[in-house]
# Entry
Amino acid sequence: MNTNNLKIAWRAAWKSKLFTVLNVFGLAIGFAGFILAYAYINRQNSYDAWNPHYDNIYLIGLEENGKASDLSPAALAPAIKTTLPEVELVGRIAQAPFETPFISNDDMFYIKHWLGADRSIAEIFDIEVSGISLNASHEGQIGILSPAVGKKLFPKEKQGAFTVAKTVALLNEQSGFTENIHGISKPRLLSNFEFDYIALTEDIAAGRRDGDTPVYQTYIQVKSGTDTKLLASKINSLYQNDIAKEKETTNSSRAESQVYLDPLKNLHLRPKHGSNIAYKITIALGTLSSIILLLACINFANLMIVQAQKRSKEIGLKKVFGVSRKRLIFQFLSEVFVQCLLAAAISGFLIILVWNTMNRFYGYDLSAFDFTQTILAQLSVAVLFTTLLSGLYPAIILSRYNPLVIIKGNLQSGQKSSAFRTALLVFQFIIAFVFISSMLIISRQMAFIKRGDRGFNLSEVVHIKNLSVFDKPAKFIDIRNKMKSIPGILDVTVTTNIPGGLAPKQEEFSYLNKTYGLNHIGVDFEYFETLGMNVQEGRSFSPQFQSDTTGGIILNETAVSTLGLANPLGEMISICDNSYRIVGVVKDSKMQGFEHLVKPTAYTLQSNCGMPNHPPKYEILAKIEAGKVRSALTELEKQWPAINKKDGKYFLYDFVDQKYAALYAKQEQLQQAFRAFTYLVMLVALIGLFSMSAYSISRREKEVGIRKVLGANAQQILFLLNKPFIKVVLIAILFATPIAWWIGNKWLNTFAYRIELPWWIFAVGAICTLLLAFITISYQAIKASIVNPANSLRDE
# Structure
């Protein structure tokens, strides 16, 4: 573009300052939303992508009756290693079920991710410690801390291998339990394989007879080009023929399990054994940000068409003087490109303003993703895409007109151009209405989750982190009595599973010579009272009934229905070689949130069942009287070393309602993101409507003046100018309503417990959309209606 073209473009932009500002600002909003969303998306997709063997690493899991598990038996890994040459490396990981204090001479750190693993895992997941070869070391066990934990426990040590292994105390200084630490690992980028402390051994299952009990995560690294479907079939045959039927098998149903391979690239966002809500959020954010950018491009294109038509005589003169059509198209595209670059620069400023808010919103440190090459590349593609989408159409259309027709002033915008602009405006408001309605649907469902019947009451229920196991009720009596002696503590219990925590595992129960899969939760006296769960039939467990300890069982309503019990009280069912009499039926409780159906569940005080399906009872819960939470916890912290000596001075707790809230934290994040994008969509749509209404009304100034001279009042003028745009919005609402209904239903169907879609949600969305459109148009319409007609008709 030469200097003269730049001057002409600048004068044209300056002559229509309002349109130019709205144009560039609307596009900047689109770019900003796009960059912010993709900073998060890029982060989520970066987990383990730095691993040189990223595409060749797989998790081996088991699937039974549609339920996938990430655990597999210990014997599977060595069998794969010796029989399948296409597998280069295989390793197992086991996670400690406890959160444990590690105590050094300098500080204490509460270890949440304590892993044990085969040494091959270090090679598979690229774990390195400077100064030591993890695979070649002669140490029987190598203990490694993560950089963050190493800095906390050993602030004077540098990352790398220690000259002499250091010792940390576990539980407390007097426990006698210790662990040797050999070094601090190198910093690693985002990975699914996270640890605070990892103990590496040559064979993590050495000397154990785990049979087919799946207690390990098993990972394999395959050779490039391996047919993974064929490999999965081979591993499944190996499992079925050599492992699932071993004599140590205690659960015959595992013989029916099928092996699956889950690629490493899927494990963070959509693992086969877990929730894929994180993946859905990234897809939603990517879609929403692209829609925002598309709407901004539509606005830009609409206004470029309007602006270009105002420059028709300039185009005609250039064609008369021999400027080719290609050069005219290039000129328009260049002008659009410059404005897009300006919008991209402004979007960078907007991002800087909200970046810290984004970090708090996502709960992540996005600093490494500020303006990486990936984001800049994505933004560059967006700028080029916008330039072509917004500039190509007006450039091609206007450059093809006959120059003599243009110079004579006979060029009309035409019905085609007007219809195209109207269609773009309709599309914008279809998207806007879908967003508003979807936001209302999401808000209503989230309110239902927060206020709906969960089957329990978590208010003032505290979860105390504990390391002692209380598998028999007699062991917990003293703890309960001491805790309840503190003013404000009403009920105390211990259990294997808590709401919002790990989901209970399924066990095989027998009733009338038939087997049923029921979830099994180990509890103690006062469990149902602590959680406020209602007993529908019979009674709760009570120390007054000694038979409850070894022979009593309580079922939830779904379990009663599953077993087909018309009169459940007194019926006998068995599990793990124990027979139990049903003493009560409790109301169903949504322990794992509203996305999953309540599973048939059985509660016992004591059983012969063991790991991994039945974890130990160590989760202590306490119900505290409202208004006395702080004083009760303060006093409990003082007395804790005497109450529970194993935990010593370390008294750690959290509130169960907060833990449960984490189940739908991602959905809340989606709700907030959707709300923010809805505001952006409406802002971009209204900017477009404002600009188009301003242009349209400005072209009808003389018509308005004549009507006022002939006696039309301000209300009639206001109605006249609003009518065509309100009609456009109504058409958009008509088309958008079934789309919004379909999208809302698709999202609600991801919940086992959901609201029904009421008609008034769409009515509220329509009213909001119409009201905002009316206010936006009316600003221009009112200005036009109060203008003195003599001014608008002066040049006639």
Summary: The chain has a mean pLDDT of 80. The first helix runs from residue 3 to 15.
